[in-house]
Amino acid sequence: MASSLFGGGAMDHGDYDSSIVDISRPAGGSPVVLICEHASNFIPAELKDLGLSADAKRSHVAWDPGALGVAQAMSDGLDATLVASRVSRLVYDCNRPPDAADAMPAQSEAFAVPGNRGLTDRQRQARVTSYYTPFRTALEATLAQRIAPILVTIHSFTPIYNGQRRDVEIGILHDTDSRLADVMLDVADTYDVQRNAPYGPQDGVTHTLRHHAVPGGHLNVMIEIRNDLIADDTAQVAMGKTLTSWLLQALDRLEVTACRA
Description:
InterPro entries: N-FG_amidohydro (IPR007709), UCP029730 (IPR011227)
Pfam families: FGase
Protein name: N-formylglutamate amidohydrolase
Helix content: 25-40%
Radius of gyration: 17 Å
């Protein structure tokens, strides 16, 4: 797979902190920019695991299991740059704006997050400066290098949430611009694929699309994959190939050329 996937040396791709955000395939020839905001469950040592148990750190509340592997497979297939956060969504959720309560949640599903409880305005701003701003800066620099970037964000979700089973297997999400999502929904097959499921823009999950794509009129889509379908490397690569095929078919219908590796 392509470098760097949280390993190797840092890459020069704008003024950003490579210990906080990772850029794979920075010279990718595709207009597609892949984004994985919840790629890692890493919590910096100074935050003392946010007071979480080992089980909580491994669980879906801390990251999106399997999402990075899928995104990396898509990066390889498309020759597309991938921008991924290196820190847990519980430290700072890079798919949320700084004023969102769940950017640094004190409770996530069944898990309390003691290290996020009672944060002062100064502490919250320090998290924004340390974790969100480097991610946003790196993504903005990546997008600025393309005339007409296409944003595709990759996420995963748990099959059971708050005790309720989720039957949807893949969600195709969008905010106010549904152009790419509409066509992907039309070409999708072999899975239970639904629009804006298991949640949608009303749940505040489309910040990256809303902030980085919609204002400039860039094609965009958010893809959510049920994480039991991408539980190992083989499944992640297979899913990456499937989603790459759907995306290329959709872009062909929209008469947009996406470079292949």
